[in-house]
Amino acid sequence: MESDKHLFNLLQRETPWSDGTEGVTQCPILPGETFKYQFKVDRPGTYLYHAHYGMQRTAGLYGLIRVSVRDGDSEPFAYDYDRSIILNDWYHNSTYEQATGLSLPSTNFIWVGEPQSLLIHGKGKFNCSSTVASSPSWVCNESNPECSPFVITVIPGKTYRLRIASLTALSALSFEIEGHNMTVVEADGHYVEPFVVKNLYIYSGETYSVLIKVDQDPSRNYWMTTNVVSRRPPTAPTGLAILNYYPNHPRRSPPTPPALGPIWNDTEPRLAQSQAIKSHHSYIHTPPPTSDRVMVFLNTQNTIDGYRRWSVNNVSFNLPHTPYLVALKLNLHHVFEQTTPPTGYDFKNYDIYSKHNNSNATSSNAIYRLQFNATIDIILQNANTMNINDSETHPWHLHGHDFWVLGHGKGKFDIYKDPRQYNLVNPIMKNTVPLHPYGWTALRFKADNPGVWAFHCHIESHFYMGMGVVFEEGIERVGSLPSSIMGCGDARGLGRP
Ligand SMILES: [Cu+2]
């Protein structure tokens, strides 16, 4: 049984029901049903859409949206050609098998594990020695055209804009192009003050545009490679694609071995890249100088009632059967818990570097109600997992808003000292941002988009295991809901005239 849900990574002003988040803004789309998303495309840039139901995104329902600038408008950089690359990781187990394993009691819990392949625009390789003997012979036949890497053909002397997006289920990635530096010019639909990288770190849910100059020895092709970082030990083989210098043959392998990527557990260059991303000087949206409400979100792993979960401030998130948007608009108060989840944790006593049982953790579907138009600060605080000496990278994605990235830091966030280092001058606005191991990330946003919005870790299995929260703001300003979002839970039938 399949049902689809699409998330459009645009702000959805006045159309909160077109955000595509199952359980938050709509009911699942059942097999055979049609659902029409209608929304204003509010700004140019590079965006993603994907399934947002269970772990369905991982099965391949996703894509990229390019929004061009208005006729007559220009961008703060120039290029000759525009190409897109979606990065992903790929598992041989179905998403149903994966979800089932994650849902077992912790004594029998089956982790999804590392992916078998990394995909560059849908194509990848895996280690054939891991194939079972009964596999059909074409599976590991390298001469099968299906096994050939993705190719981008480029013309020497030209400049290319590459729109690079990640929709990995789990992996944090590095991406590089042999012999070519990349100038980062866009992040999540916002222009970046250009900076040059040899290697781009990219996390699930993020998009970047980079410029490359086709200026190397034209007699050969070059590898484009992607590798896993931040997980031990990375086992997926390097993801490969070919930058094909015209008129060389597009399938001719470069004469050099592909790059193995940066050291997987070196957090420093990843933190440095996060800190290097600033708004382009001509496109700065200055953030409000202060906030009305500050929330600190401690990210931890827990065992709750015998199940392995992820939590924010020791509360693990569950989706209700009736979407919040419907429940709140139609005053169905009984369909989710009417408590307020915690807005902080025990700063003084909680040691983020040691392994905890977090035995006071609970599961809940309660949400944060925000005052309309208030300025909200969120500080994401990382910690040790339930394994010794282990803290993971979590890419947090906010629906319905772009937030200012005020800062990234190491260790435990100090609510008195660290805000003094916030970048209030030229912070980038994004919709997805990494929380680095044992670090903190500070965000600010205006609660000015009437609706109900998910904020969650973009790692598919982490959100599935409870790593998310929901914000409501200005629900009384939301217009009449379409009946098409009401096919489930206590919402069933409510939309009919
Ligand atoms: Cu996560």
**Secondary structural class:** mainly beta
CATH architecture of the largest domain: Sandwich
Side by side, the strands of the main sheet go: 5-4-7-12-9-10
Q: State the separation between the terminal residues, measured CA to CA.
A: 29 Å
- Give the overall average pLDDT: 93
Tell me the helix content. Answer: under 10%
Question: Any idea of the CATH topology of the largest domain?
Answer: Immunoglobulin-like
Task: List all distinct small molecules, including ions and cofactors, that are bound in this structure.
Answer: copper (II) ion
Task: Indicate the low-confidence ranges by residue numbers.
Answer: 1-5
Radius of gyration: 22 Å
Model description:
The protein has 497 residues and is mostly beta strands. It folds into two domains: 75-276, Immunoglobulin-like, CATH 2.60.40.420; 293-491, Sandwich (Immunoglobulin-like), CATH 2.60.40.420. Helices cover 6% and strands 33% of the residues. It has four helices and 27 strands. It has helices spanning 95-102, 268-276, 324-329, 460-464, and strands at residues 6-8, 45-51, 62-67, 81-90, 117-120, 150-154, 159-166, 172-177, 182-187, 190-197, 199-202, 207-213, 222-229, 239-245, 293-304, 307-312, 315-317, 362-364, 368-370, 375-381, 394-398, 403-410, 429-430, 432-435, 439-446, 451-457, 468-473. The strands form six sheets. A six-stranded mixed sheet has the order 5-4-7-12-9-10, with no helix packed on it. The chain has a six-stranded mixed sheet with strand order 16-15-20-25-22-23. Strands 6-14-13-8-11 form a five-stranded mixed sheet, with no helix packed on it. β15 (293-304) and β16 form a beta hairpin. The two termini are 29 Å apart. Bound molecules: copper (II) ion.
